[in-house]
Design a protein that fits this description.
The structure is a single chain. The chain is of the alpha/beta class. Helices cover 25% and strands 16% of the residues. It contains nine helices and 13 strands. It has a five-stranded parallel β-sheet with strand order 10-9-11-12-13, sandwiched between helices. A four-stranded antiparallel β-sheet has the order 4-5-7-8, with no helix packed on it. Strand 12, helix 7 and strand 13 (248-250) form a beta-alpha-beta unit. The longest helix is centred in the middle third of the chain and has 18 residues, at 122-139. Bound molecules: iron/sulfur cluster. The site of iron/sulfur cluster (SF4) has 14 residues, from helix 3.
């Protein structure tokens, strides 16, 4: 049986996130961060794609960047992670590798010079905490198992690949008591992807109505948050927030499986809701065991304290 020897030699690939940070997460392009222009002495002008760029001109295909005087803002809810801005102005824009990008308020996705905007989102956090407490009361009888109904409301398919990855041996969300269900009547969480195509808005609302209360809605991916590249055309809406009361927003195009997992854990109260400007609750940039990295086995490994022997 070759898979037995392979398993013994390579160890268990399953992540320990969120109990421990996972070094596999930061290999993703999590989001765009902005450095202060005062540090660089540069002034940014935003432009449309195709108008030609010179020094100081950033072409963002979704209009996620805005510049007013010396202040630059990036709306992560509109960013499709094309990295064009980083290529245009690497001294001002940079890749942020953190995968914990889910937030409980739409405004919290707008970052100013690298910081999440001023005191925004505290009301949203309070509302989410109340909802989480209500949901936790019901799911406690189910040993905190959570059932998710996923609806594709006009996705390009990329988010679905990452959602499917959640059930593979690396992420293995079942270890956390999280399961996907095809019935909205069994679901606690509605996970929505896609730009909110006109034909899917009604089925989306019917799915939401069919779910028992309390229920949590997650907008997964930039398309679901704002419509992305397809925002505002005849066939799509500007994100699913126009049709449903969204509780958790997770940007990315697509979001990584760790970002999706972060959003789900945030939605069901297994991770605390964060106020604007707060730092990550888990430092995923710390080195940790990667999938397929060899793990010690046997009695020595059993005696080793948590976090050692990796
Ligand atoms: S990475 Fe995001 S913010 Fe930068 S140009 Fe692309 S869409 Fe715009």
């Amino acid at each position: 049986m070759p898979w037995i020897t392979r398993g013994l030699s390579e160890g268990v690939p399953t992540s320990r996130y969120p109990r421990q940070p996972d070094g596999y997460g930061p290999t993703w392009f999590g989001s765009v961060a902005v450095r202060s222009q005062q540090d660089t002495g540069r002034e940014i002008v935003t432009g449309q794609v195709g108008t030609g760029s010179g020094r100081g001109v950033v072409e963002c295909p979704t209009g996620a960047i805005s510049a007013a005087g010396s202040q630059i803002t990036v709306d992560r809810g509109r960013c499709i992670l094309c990295a064009r801005c980083i290529g245009n102005e690497p001294g001002i824009f940079e890749s942020d590798p953190s995968v914990e990008v889910a937030v409980s308020g739409r405004e919290m996705l707008v970052v100013v010079d690298g910081d999440s905007g001023p005191a925004l989102g505290q009301e949203d956090d309070a509302r989410l905490i109340q909802l989480q407490a209500s949901l936790a009361k019901r799911t406690r009888r189910l040993h905190r198992s959570i059932h998710i109904r996923h609806v594709d409301a006009g996705s390009d398919g990329s988010e679905e690949w990452e959602i499917a990855a959640l059930t593979n041996p690396v992420y293995d969300v079942q270890r956390l008591g999280i399961f996907f269900t095809s019935s909205p009547r069994h679901a606690d969480v509605l996970l929505v992807t896609g730009a909110g195509s006109a034909g899917m808005l009604e089925p989306l609302k019917k799915t939401f109505d069919a779910m028992p209360s309390p229920k949590v809605v997650i907008a997964a991916g930039t398309d679901a948050i704002s419509g992305g590249l397809l925002a505002g055309n005849y066939a799509t809406s500007g994100g699913i927030g126009e049709a449903l009361p969204v509780d958790v927003w997770v940007p990315g195009s697509p979001p990584s499986p760790f970002s999706l997992l972060h959003a789900i854990l945030l939605a069901v109260g297994l991770l605390p809701a964060r106020s604007a400007g707060a730092t990550d609750s888990l430092d995923t940039t710390r080195p940790s065991r990667r999938p397929n990295q060899r793990r010690r086995t046997g009695r020595r490994a059993k005696r080793a304290p948590e976090g050692q022997g990796q």
